[in-house]
Every structure is written in structure tokens, then in C-alpha cells.
Amino acid sequence: MTVMSQEEMMVGIKTVAQGLEALKNELMASNNPSGQNTMQPEEKQSMLQKTLDMTELGLGEAQVMLALASHLQNVEAEKQKLRTQVRRLCQENAWLRDELANTQQKLQASEQAVALLDEQNKHLEFMASISKFDADKTEDQTESKQEKSKNDDPVVDLFPDDENEERNTLSPTPPSQFAQQVNAGAGYEIPARLRTLHNLVIQYASQGRYEVAVPLCKQALEDLEKTSGHDHPDVATMLNILALVYRDQNKYKDAANLLNDALAIREKTLGENHPAVAATLNNLAVLYGKRGKYKDAEPLCKRALEIREAVLGKGHPDVAKQLNNLALLCQNQGKYEEVERYYQRALEIYEKKLGPDDPNVAKTKNNLASCYLKQGKYKEAEILYKQVLTRAHEREFGTIDGDEKEWASMANNNNSKA
User: Fold this and answer.
1) Cα torsion through 373, 330, 388, 165, rounded to 10
2) For the whole prediction, is pTM greater than 0.85?
């Protein structure tokens, strides 16, 4: 038996319905012929009436079948639509799986690269600890590299240790540091209605997608000024964010204008000695330092130092970071006596508060040794470099003895006298 399609069934049903309708009309005509008054025999009339009833029943069933067929067509159309949606969702799911797989591969490659660099770093440290170089040659090479770096970019070493406030790199700022730079010491939270937008701006800026970050930040500023007014701490925070975005784009003039505006707002709303004011002052000092305006940056850095000393105490690690910043600014101006004083004080704070093995101790000693080299104080620089190497060797391989122990002891004694 041949299976009929739905359309063929509907065509057949319509044909049968038309035939039944014609038969009905014919029977009705024969039951009461037009123009005749004679009555048919009762038996014939009963048969015709029965046939007519069955024909009407057939017509009713045909109409029901037509309605059912129409409903089935609608159901089939909806079913096809749902199948199309399912296929599209499957395609999107496959695409997302591919994206996830690619991301996982990139992450694995990054982890392998980090592990390789870590191993290389350990190897270099080991080689440095067991090799004996001529002291004068080491000093000459160090000074040569520092001078070359300075010639390439005179502010490339500006504020290398101030991770919570600023890093003087021309590449986009990582998201965690970017957020810390903006909100460090602010003492308040971003409103919930703007937190998502705030995080998006930071994320896009950290990826270098400034064409997205800048409009988002400007929209946030516009919304804040409409709801809270221009003189509001949250407006100052968004101004800081936009300023850092401009700074990463080397738009220093625009960044400076925004930071000065944020500074005025924070001084007015939070007070002149608030930690948020110190954060903005430091951001502005870094910006001036990147432009080579060391004389303009120095008083800003000093004021930030005074605020942090008053709020946090003179022995706080953040005060030591600010001292390092100030020392680097003075070093770019050739004020080596002040540089020595600031580094020595920062070193004392780090050793007392964080311990002799904290990385900031070694960094500060290295910076101070660099200052000694620039002044031709090679002996003092040698002592500090040996202290750093000795401490690194003891952490990695244990205590040293023999001749190395003698010069290490002498280095520690000379440093304590200084």
C-alpha cells in the first residue's frame, strides 16, 4: 500500500468533500424535484433521506479532517522552526567549545613559558653566585648598562618599586595594578550601579582597547556628574581612571588636566591630607616624571610623602615606597645627597617592617648602589652589591664560609656604620 503524503491526503479529502456536497445537492433535488408536486413512494423517500443523512455525516467528517490536517501543518511548521533553533544552538555550542579549547591551549603555553623562564632565572642566579668576576669590570658594565638605559629613555627607571600607585611602563597597565592605582587609599567603594562599567573600563584599558575604554569612561563620568554633581569623590575616581588610560596612550597633556581636576575634587571633598589625595599627587608626579619635568614632579612627590607620613606613620612601608619615588626623581636631577638620604631611610623601614629577605630590601640596596656608582663611590656600591648577592646565595644554598664569609661580614659591618 502506497503511503500518501499530507498534501495528497488533503487534496483527496477536498475532492471527496466536493463530491459529497454535489451528491447531497442531487439527492435533495431528487427528494423534492423542482416543478413536481407528486410524492414519491414512502420506501424510496426513506432511502433517499437515509442516503442524505449519511452524505451530511460524510461532509462533517471531511470538514473535521480538513481542520485536523491544517492543525498538523501548523504543528509541523513549528517543529521545523524549533529544529532550526536547535541546530543554531548546537553550532554556537561547538564554536564556544572551540574558543574554550583555544584559550586553554594558550593558557597552557603561557604556563610552560613562565615555568621555562623561572628555570632560566634560577640558573642565572646560580651562575651569578658561583662565578667570580673582576670587581672593576662588574662596576664598569653596570654603569655602562645604566647609562645606555638612561640615554634610550631618561625616565624608564622612574618609580620602579611603586607598584600600588604607578609603574612607569609604556605598555598597558595590568588590570590589578590599574585598579590599585585608581582606588589606592580612596576610602570608599565605587557605586554598585557603576561597578560593572568601572571594571569594564579597567579591563579594556589593560588590553590596550582604548577605543572602547575611553567612551565607556566618558559615559560613566557623564552619568556620575548628572546624578552626583561634578564635585564628588566618585567623579574624581573616574577622572583618575581616564587619566591613566590617556597616560598609557601617551596623551600626557589630557592626562595631566584630568589628574589636576581629580586632585582639586578630592582636596575639596575629602580634605587636603586624605590618602586619596596622596595617591592622585603621586599619579601626577609620575606623569610629570615621564615627560621629564622632574622639578615639577618633586614637590608633588614630597607632598604625597608628607600626607602618608601623617596618616600612616613614618615607619610604614608605603612611606618607604614614596621615599623611593622621591629618590628617583632627585637622582634624575643629580641631587645625589638627597637621593642617598631617601634611599637609606627607605631601606631602614623595609628592613624593620618587612624583614631583610623582603624583595624591596634588595631593590632599594640596588638603587642605592646605582646612586653610588653615578658618584664614583665604587667601594660603597661594591659593598651593597655583595650584600645583595650574599643574601640571595644564603636563601638559595645556605650560609657561605671561607673568604666569601670574610668579605660578606666586612660588607655588613661597613653598611651598619653608614
Assistant:
1) -150
2) no
